[in-house]
Structures are given as C-alpha cells and as structure tokens.
Amino acid sequence: MECSRSLLADPAAASLYCGATTAARRRSATFLSCSCSTARGPATMSWRFNESVDRRSAVPRVNGRNGNGHCGRAAAAREESSVVLEAVEDEYGGMVVDADRLPADTGGFARSLAASLSYWKSAGKKGVWLKLPLDRSEFIPLAVKEGFSYHHAEESYLMLTYWIPDEPCLLPANASHQVGVGGFVINDQMEVLVVQEKYSDSTLLGAWKLPTGFIHASEEIFTGTVREVKEETGIDTEFMELIAFRHAHNVAFQKSDLFFICMLRPLSNDIMIDEAEIQAAKWMPLPEFMEQPFVQDDHMFRKISDICVQRLRRRYCGLTAHHVVSRFDGGASTLYYDAAEHQRGDPSCDAAA
C-alpha cells in the first residue's frame, strides 16, 4: 500500500521552536489516495491534511523546552518516532493502519500509536483497524495497553480494533460462521458413495456416511463439495443441485455452522481414499444406506436422506448455481435458486412444481 509520510500528532504543541532553523523544518504533509482493505471490503478514500505542521511540535515539552535546553540529536530522534502512523480513512470515517509501514521497534511504535490516537480523536475519527503481522507480535501488548481489542486472527497476522467515540461501537464483528458441505453422489445403479472416517464422534463409529468437509476461503459451495469428494474418495463428480442446508449454533469455538448438501453426478467409478482421514469408502445400495441405524435414528440425517430420495423420484427440485454481477459490491458472485424457473423442460422440476 503506497501512502505518503504521516503527519505529526498534536499540532497544538507547535509553540516549541529552536531558533531560525525551525522555519526550514516546516513542511506540508499529505496522505495520498491509496487502496486498502477493511472488514467491510476495499476502501479507496484518502485522509488528506494540508495544514503546515512543525515537525518539532510533537516533541514533549519538559521544563519549558526539550529537557536539556537545546535541540539535539535525541530530540530529533524522538521527533521522528512521534509521527502519526501511516493510515488511510475508510468509507465509514475510520482509520486503517498500514501494516507494511509500522515503526521498527517497540518504543517507536508505542509513541506513534499514542500520538495517532490523540490526533485521530481530535480529528473526529471513529474506528481504528490495526493489523499486526506475525513478525510484529511484540507490538500486541502495547496496543492492548492503549485500549485495543482483538478482532480476529489468521496464520500471518492479528487484527485489533479501537472504537474512539463515546458511544456504542459500530465496527462489524468477526466472522460468525463456518461453512461445511456434504456430497450426495449416486450412480446409475442407485448406489451412494459413502465413507467411514478414521476420526469421528463415537456415535458415528462404524457408520457409512456421505463425504463431508469445509470449504476454503473464496471457494464456491458447489466447487468445494466436488473438491471434498475428490480428496476423500478419488471420485470425480459434477455438481447438479444444492438440495438443502442446515443452520446450527455454538458448534466449534462457539461459532455457528452452515452445512450445505449438494447432489453430485459421478464422472468416475474407481475409489482411491485419502488414507490420512478416511478409513474406507465404497458404493452402497441406496436402500442399505437409508436403513442404517444412524440414519433412521437421527431426525436430521433421515430428513436429508429423504429429500435426496424425493429428488431422485422427481418430487423435489433443488437449487442450481448461477453466476451474477451486482452493483452492490461490483463483483461476480453465485446465486442459487430453483432450477424450475429457468429449466421448464426438466421433467423432474416440472413434476416438483
């Protein structure tokens, strides 16, 4: 992210001058327009400040001057470390700190962070997004000491936030859901592709279940389902329809869970399991699959199986994936809706309508 040099904090302290050389040290600082990412998506608004500021004004006053009565190298070093952190303003009046332009040491970071918060408060800013890369983890306790809170973490960084106004925080919360998928794969012999997992809940020991897993970041529901089936069983498949989905809460780490069941058409037949996760896999006759105790005794599994059977009998029509572009976010996305609307010639959907 390319941005200009940051401004000094607390311009009100500009009364501290050191002779005629002060005028030469004055400069106008401007944040250039640049793009950055917020929790709500890309933002390109810039923070522009054209006021001429004395760079020495950020040096704290001690005994009326800089503590030693002159402007030495120590004061210059403190002056350099007291600049406001590089940041751009998002579309909601918040500041997004540039994670690639952080100070090099903890002392400089602590001073710059305090100066930044002071300036942003006086400027009427709202939320602050502070992304700390893994190699800057020593800055975390300093940010927490200033009042920052954890927002979310990934493998390479921790995101912290700070809400400036004395009012309820309006920053969006961390992602609240995980997304899982299951593939109902059935061949022309009315056999269902099933697996036994190596590591599973005691209630599923010995049970034959559908291949399942979690989708990756930026992965479509239907492509994630095809991938999971391929990884666990070696079977290539083609997405047909999204049959149903389940919504549950307080699943893993108190997160909610969305689980999508997709019907897939097999494109191959020879099974090759992922031995790291799967104990066994096979093609099982549909009646045998349906008669398993874990299916019959569990209302959710029984209902999912019944829906899939109704689809095979052409008494139910699922949702198909359609690529669309919306002005809302300007990007491409996938919309799932009833195939009957656009496939009137499909006898299965006509029968279900």
From TrEMBL:
It holds the Pfam family NUDIX. Residues 176-310 form the Nudix hydrolase domain. PROSITE patterns: NUDIX. One of its GO terms (molecular function) is metal ion binding. Keywords: Hydrolase, Metal-binding. PANTHER family: FI03680P, NUDIX HYDROLASE RELATED. Belongs to the Nudix hydrolase family. This is Nudix hydrolase domain-containing protein. It comes from Urochloa decumbens.
